[in-house]
Amino acid sequence: MNLNVSENGLTGLKVMVIDDSKTIRRTAETLLKKEGCVVSTAVDGFEALAKISDQKPAIIFVDIMMPRLDGYQTCALIKNNPLFRATPVIMLSSKDGLFDKARGRIVGAEQYLTKPFTRDELLGAIHRHVSTVPNG
How many domains does the chain have? Predict the structure, then answer.
């Protein structure tokens, strides 16, 4: 796979955004597609887990507060799968609490972004973590 992870763009980079808010999904998708990312979205952890094995995203953004399967549970399930253990997971939350950040670390999240996030925060997280992801 030919990935162009540079300051100019993220052409072809597969990104997944999991959030029960249509607005957040659409905002992230629009921002990332402008950078050349291939974006897939899911409304909750169950939908995401079904898509992850097919789409093999290079990085996953997941909301903490979701129905059925929350972000912590979703992250833990992703990290417990040997195929996706190395995939960076970035937690998204409207709360900026220390407890939430610590809990995110416990389940294996690489970073924690507070909503509403900016374009720079989203892209910064990708640039910070995507180089550690094996291409494949």
Answer: 1
